[in-house]
Fold each of these.
Amino acid sequence: MISVKCPHCHVGLKVDEGKIPLDITFFNCPKCKQPIPVSMLSLGKGQNMPESDTVLIRPIKTTTGRLSVIANDDTPEQVFSLYEGLIIIGRKSNASKAQFGIVTADKSMSREHIRIEVKKDAKGGYKHYLSDNNSKNNTLYNSNYLKHGEIVVLSNNDEIVIGHTVLRFNE
């Protein structure tokens, strides 16, 4: 829920942003019936903000993310599309039970190094939860080591380092 103030009658409203259609440009105030402009928030660097009376709404992410393996001397570039459920990721091996086996010569990467759990949230979008899977050499998440049992929610462009291999999460 977000707080919105009508620019016409100044009544305070609580709006469930998950129920606002993505193609909407305004909605009518329930008190004064005047239009309240809406703009979906997908602003990057260098973009201008809309008019100050415009309500900015962050659209719900209705697709699962993907994990890109950044190429290095030991590892070719690879991309894995995530899906709902629990996914174990590690070095590809016949002895591994990982759903996503990374083709690599990086022996510091465990065969079942990390876990990503993709869950649908109450608004119909997806959340991606990262944790270390008791790996031998730990997991770096945005330059910080994950503690034993720690779970973090992934965001667009997060960097994960397993062994000497860099992974990038994208929504």
Note: The longest strand covers residues 85-91.
Amino acid sequence: MAQRDGLSAILIAKNASKTISETLASLDFCDAIIVLDSGSQDDTVAIARAFGAKVVETDWLGYGIQKQRALSFVETTWALSIDCDEVVSQALKDEILLTLKHPCHNVYRMPRLNHLCRRPVRCAGWYPDYVDRLLRVGEAQFSDSLVHESLVFACSSGSFSSPLLHYSYDDLDSAIDKLNRYSSLAAMSLKSRGRRVGRLTPPLRMCYRFFHAYVLRGGCFGGLDGFSASLLQAVEVYFKYCKAIRDA
């Protein structure tokens, strides 16, 4: 339970030394920073402590459970959930601080601006990619999803207009690595829910996802980056269902 006024940032981390410094630097407006680390073998823990973060070292049980664990260590009224490849823009920082002076809601969402090779992509469903991240402690909790977790709440919610910067893919190698990890976790999630997957599901889902991102969500207007963002989404869906068939 929250014990004092203020705002805590919560992060879950593993081998995030390449990106976490920029993330932590953008959280200088928070009263506390809590990093839940799951066995990092690089400098993640040392970097987090250098920024004054409280580091809790634990095992890994999935994105949703880890974020809920991190939330349990918050001792302030408000919590801000941030990933280790995200940066709070100055405009968003100002908007959060202004809102918390006289909050009208208990949960706030923000538009996330995803980047590909450090270039912002404003099409293919990558912007505005709204995510619920700011919450009054005790009014919401994270789902127990292995991947693509979400906040679960029944209280009132509001929206910010300034972007959360998401440097999801610094290069193509990291894009492929992340695609592989996320599709594996998503396949495990399907299996845990007892979802049956037919042989035609992977190509059909892939084609629909590409059409949805490239045509319906305007990826076709984004040049090569728009095409790449659409293709990454489609390929992740394809391998998610292929892996679900393989593991059935």
Note: The longest strand covers residues 4-13.
Amino acid sequence: MRKDGGMQVTKREENKHYAVLVVDMLNDFIYGKLKCVRAKKIIPKIQSLLETTKDIEVPVFFCNDAHQKNDSYEFKLWGQHALKGTTGAKIINDLKPSKFDYIVPKRTYSAFYNTKLQSLLKKKFGGRGPDCLIIVGIHTNICAKHTAYDAFVRGFEVIVPEDGVTAFTEKDHKFGLDYMKQNYGAKILKMSEIIHLLEKTKA
């Protein structure tokens, strides 16, 4: 860290390639059936990050639940939600994707499991793929955590903004952050630090 509180960017970090995963910022989770009241606070933070990615060409992947009616493994716990093709499964208007962003449907907690995410990532940066994934969205202790695990075992570095993810409770949120840091080596930063990092890599 610098003395002024900002994040010091090393030469190695400047040479990294980054991608952003926006997890489950859907109508059902923000405003609907499984509404997380705390999620509204992270919307402006994610908006700021997405605005930054447009200026520096960091790819963005919206990883969204798109369940089938027979996905009973989750419905038994949470009730029916984010059914494919319904309004509840659509990305909130606050974070409307651009034509350059990628949409990755998923049917489990992880954005990698039985999806096209890994193959899409590998196509970026001349076939090299990103070095580091920035994970935002909900829930810190569930879908963000499971996605971080699958990123970790695939060799990606993981960054999670503590103010860019959330959960139903502060306890669950902190648990998710601590778990990802301790077990996956995830860097837990402020969104402002991450934006500063991305801006420096382009400078």
Note: Strands lie at 18-23, 60-65, 102-106, 132-138, 157-161, 165-166, 187-189.
Amino acid sequence: MSDSKIIEVQHITKRFKGLTAVKDVSFSVREGGITGMIGPNGAGKSTTFNMICGYYPPTEGKIFYKGQDITDKKAYEYTNMKIARTFQIMKPLKNLSVLENVVASSYFGHAAAKNEREAKERAMEILQFTGLYEKRHILSKDMGTPDQKRLEMARALATRPEMLFLDENMAGLNPAETEAAIQLIRKINESGVTIFLIEHIMQAVVSLCEEVIVLHHGEKIAEGTPAQVMNDPYVMEVYLGKKEGANA
């Protein structure tokens, strides 16, 4: 894994009509690795994610991708920069099949398919990779949550990203489904894609991430390896609602 930083976030702040959702947050994402962001509900994770992905411009601060200032780039420009993301609320093309969903995504990005044959070949390859090949003819609206989340990743991969943002891809999954999702995310990373994820499921964070950033009330309160973060007294207090050693 490279020591170079693929994403650098410098002192970003986001205010919504006077409410500060994120305050002076800085961190970097190492190229080739898996970095996670955690925090209680309302910590500012999604707002931070959306700023980095071009959905909200920061009120203050800068965002760099491979050394280039992308602070004012729009979300639709990201696929051409080899960046893709998934959404917490899945938005497949509901009346299209799994295969058709991935074919449609293949026409976007820096390596957009030039014709239908190329798009279909790429889609079939990605469906094999993500374990959805056997379900390629099912309408996406008829699939359960685990498969819809897998389809969300397949659609992102169809744009041939080098950087993939995953927004709570394991929410609502049972332990077996979570483990399958962990294996797929690891496989995507091993194929050469840098991953930055927001996740509530600690098993996944500990299993996947080399670096973890913790937000609370819109501010970064900790950063380090999963072990360092999980043993931080303030992080424990935030998550468990009590100080270490305090009476239950």
Note: The first strand starts at residue 5 and ends at 16.
